[in-house]
Design goal:
elongated
Length: 253
Amino acid sequence: MDSSGIPARSGSSRSKNPTRKLLLVVAAAVVLVAVAGGAYGAWYILIGPSSPSAVTGAAIPPGASVPAPASLDGTWQASDSLGSFGDFSSTWVGYQVKEQFAGIGGHTAVGRTPKVAGSMTLTGGTVSNVQITADLTALVSDDARRDGELGDKGIETNTYPTAIFKSTQRVVLTLPAEREVVSVTATGTLTLHGVTKPIQIALQAQRQGGIVAVSGSTNIVFADYGFQGPTSLLVVSVENHGIVELHLLFTHA
């Protein structure tokens, strides 16, 4: 107590003030991050970039033209020069998976890669020896941060850079008349994240001249291939399953 009769403040009380201020600053920062995350999530869901539409059918790109070969029999190879990846009229392989934002809602993430190599053999009315290889390191979605996370999380493209489909049964496919669409089911194996599993893919095919367009999709459970969907500060959960989809344009070798 000083001469005025007012108790003097202890030094220990003064020493606690910086700590208290630091805690307040940290708490404020956490609140700001949460608010920013919620605002970003709301923007992303309500007015953010829309996801590309799911593949709906085999389509020949507008203006694409390749003369029909003398015989349809033989080897057909996936083309990387027809159509445009900008409007997804080209050859590509991709995924769809639903993400959940904290307190906001869901968003369907769609990623696709144009780096696809593949071939199939046509003999009479059957298709065999189908092999499609997709470069997953080139997957592009509407968010570069999501794409970057896939390098070390989820499908871990830095470790498992490719996905491969191989047919195990012949497919009966009588190529249709020009622009007519036919439906078939391909049976084979899918190698993803270093794991190979049997799979069936429902496909549609369409021919125009020397171009055969093939599209389709199938559902997969991530745990079957030894991984789970990645999450982040904004994305609190990802469904445990997703869709593998493809759109392929073949020309006669």
